[in-house]
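An example makes the point: we print one protein in full, the chain in one-letter code, the fold tokenised, without further comment:
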Amino acid sequence: MAATYDLATNIGKVRLRICDTDIALALFSDAEISEFLIASRNNVPLAAAEAYETLARDRARLARVVQSGTYKTEKHAIADLLKLADALRKGALPIGAETGILVSSDQEMLEEYRPTWRGIFDPPVVE
């Protein structure tokens, strides 16, 4: 299982967000983090959220997290990981935002907004 930690790469940025920075005890390989990045279209916070959710579902990896942390039960660890994943998802840009693609709700909003053009001496519109 090859694991690297380089903040100049998106893999390193995901590792930083999920606190998987000790390469000797890495929870995920570079290939696994690459898959999270592919699934999230290179959106680092969304990839980190995927990693947290995977940790919450994978009992073997979760056991390593619980043993190295201060959690008393897996139940608390799962709840905390899912909260972290949710927070990352809420803080992430929508998929496509970084590439300039409009999501459907933005398109509908833009369709409703049609400014009327006025001359430079017309009074400003106050709404």
